[in-house]
Amino acid sequence: MKVTWIAAGTLGCAGALVAALGGADLLRPAGPDLSQAVAEPGSHRIAATAGARPARVHTAPRIPAPAGPATPQASGRVAPPQPAPGPAWSRVVANGDTLDSLLAESGLAPEDRRAVVAAIADKTDAGGLRPGHRVSVQSLSDGTPAAVSLTIDDGRRVVTMLRDSPDSRLIDPETTTRAHAGTVAVDGTIFAALEGADIPTRFAADFTDTLGGIVDFRRDMQGGETLDVLWHEDVSADGTRIGQPGLRYAALALDGAVIELLDGAGGVTVFRNGNLVQTAAMPVEDARLSSPFGPRDHPIRNRVIMHTGVDYAAARGTPVHATAPGRVSFVGRRGGYGRVVEIDHGDGRMSRYAHLSTVAQELSDGDRVGAGDVIGAVGATGLATGPNLHYEVRIAGRPVDPLSDERVAEMTETTDRAAAARRLAAARTETAARLDRRVAAMSRLTLSTKGK
Known about the structure:
By secondary structure, this protein is of the alpha+beta class.
């Protein structure tokens, strides 16, 4: 279980209170021992009556943190007994609710509510409260509010201990990771094929995004292609899915080729017929970044203007490489860009290489290129003060910072091919084993159904 601390909190009878809020494990992280905290005698100003909500007379005082463990003092006196957990208030968030309004409904005073909202805001967006979330307030036996729990998405909770300065902790639920595998025949769209096989449809976007420059999903797929998928998901103790499922491995069998996608800690790796495919490369090797993305004083137009890409200063004639697989969508001149090559990478992504002195021989619209292929050479055509490459990335027609895009920022040419091959073999083995188990289970189900 991951527990993030804002500050180490102390609270009288904290163990019981936290358990009442469903989070006994709050006592486990390193920090001051919550069980040693005591309440200041005579400090509680809330009168409680059995079966009724406590009536607030004055603002509930905070429970002070003691200077040390509750041990007998030199005077021979011992710490007063700790109050037991008292009533709890809880409500599911409905349309129109705010965190402040719910805390007011629970009986918290305005200053208490402000402190709790501020503490929770350090860990999550309190303004992003949505129907289905839950707010709970736990009190001591004398009615003093002691802790607030906000249950948000995927079972995560923000627990706030009320003391001189409320402390909030973000707690992730205990989860178990389960692996699943499935196989489908793609006769229409990949989305429809996954949906029909009860495989997470969000993977369809992963396929088109990652493989868009390698597979032309409209031209290369004729119908009937086989797609194997291995994925994992986290589930809570009661079996509820937590978070989004994660794709581990996929294999798409095309006519004459098998494209495999392997996702791991180092990013996505693509294989074609078992051979590693480089999916990203730098546009110019050993070049200096001379102008970043964003507003800048234009060196020729003498005014501030948006720079829609990044510039790499390099000697005229330095080779320019395609940064990712794709299909050439334009070769020619575009005003101030000078001579350019544009590549469509699929899923609305396009890269542009400008100010080129020359274009690779015989490169034309519609040609396929791979990551690292030479497409031209550095030049100074168009509005340029000297030889450089203007490199631009657009998504759905809008320019984005190329160096902020994960597929570019994490580019590397030092892939350990042997390690990648081992991971691929392991993924293939696990997928095959799980598919076999799934087929066996379906066969047993069919036999048992026929016997009825």
